[in-house]
Amino acid sequence: MSPASMRANDSDDVRAAASGDRHAFQRLYQLHVGRVHGAVYRLAGYDHARAEDLTQDAFIRAWQKLPGFRHESAFGTWLYRLAVNLALMDIRARGADPVSMLDDEHLPDAGETPFCAAEREELERAIGKLPPRARAVLVLHDIEGWRHEDIGSELGMAVGTSKAQLHRARGLLRKVLGESS
Amino acid sequence: MNEFEWRRQMRDLRQPLTPQRDLWVSIEAALEDSERTPVTPVTRETRPARRHWMIASGIAASLLLAGGIGWQVLHAPAATSVASSKGRTGSWKPADPRLAGAAIELNAAQMELQLAIKQAPGSPSLQRLLSRAEQQQTQLRQLASQAAG
């Protein structure tokens, strides 16, 4: 299926789902769950159970808010932002300190994660060990490609703070990976 | 690793991921529940989801505050006042004034959460918060007993 026809189907299903068609919403779920769950999973520190709860919440909220969806953006983008916002709210609700970072003494020994382990799985594990807010900034900027302005707006912090958090998060990550950058 | 390589590796992590279990069954069940419970119409002006999560955040903070007060009382000299209880459900207020504030916070948190759950019955996060509030209240009752003893 071409991207254009996929978008057309998506659009039909969005309208049908907004009118209460649950089968259409199920098709939207199947089409978008991978992207949504992937982003939420990374923000949740690679915690499967938490990410699944958040993904589930995101789709339930999307269903409830669909009648108000105005098609100003693609449905996938709208849903993705909704899910990311939920994951960020979850980080806030868990009382993550906005400025605290992982102490050096709590970092795992570099020997446990040799540099060659910068391969996907090890990298993900290392990101999962970062403090929640620092991880959120790193995931949103370096992986999801967000701008600092958007991150600052969503996380309620100044652009400068977002940049500082990212710099520190990268440093911690390199340290976890055993790299002396 | 140079900057370019670093960025490439990070961007490579941006991949879709299928959940380990099929979430649709739970989502559909939650949608059915929410259809049985009327939901307030959504408008851009009211932004209920954001407000709803702000409430949840506030409740979480209240729970932390209540826990903190309880912890202080536990480590303070025993109180002379006697805790009173009106049962496991409904409004409960200990006689010890140092615990009363925490009890009010917890009662309010429970009421807010119950209202929020009525609007979003399938929300695991809200259920977790309610469960935490109930645990805190149980702990507070124990503290009230200790303070009385």
What does this structure look like?
- The complex is a heterodimer of chains A (181) and B (149).
- With 181 residues, chain A is mainly alpha-helical.
- Chain B has 149 residues and is mostly helical.
- Helices cover 66% and strands 0% of the residues of chain B.
- The longest helix of chain B is centred in the middle third of the chain and has 27 residues.
- Chain B is flat, with a radius of gyration of 22 Å.
- About 13% of the residues of chain B have low confidence.
- Classes of the chains: A mainly alpha (181), B mainly alpha (149).
Topology:
The complex is a heterodimer of chains A (181) and B (149).
Chain A (H helix, E strand, L loop, with lengths): L2 H16 L3 H22 L4 H18 L9 H19 L26 H9 L3 H12 L4 H8 L3 H18 L5
Helix pairs in contact in A: 1-2, 2-3, 2-4, 3-4, 6-8, 7-8
Chain B lengths: L2 H10 L11 H13 L11 H27 L22 H23 L4 H25 L1
Features:
heterodimer; A: 181 residues; mainly alpha; elongated; B: 149 residues; 5 helices; flat
The helicity of chain B comes to: 55-70%
Q: Helix and strand succession of chain A?
A: HHHHHHHH
Shape descriptor of chain A = elongated
Find the structural class of chain B using helix and strand composition: mainly alpha
What integer is the average pLDDT of chain A? 83
Q: From the structure provided, what is the oligomeric state, counting identical versus distinct chains?
A: heterodimer
Residues in β-strands, percent of chain A: under 5%
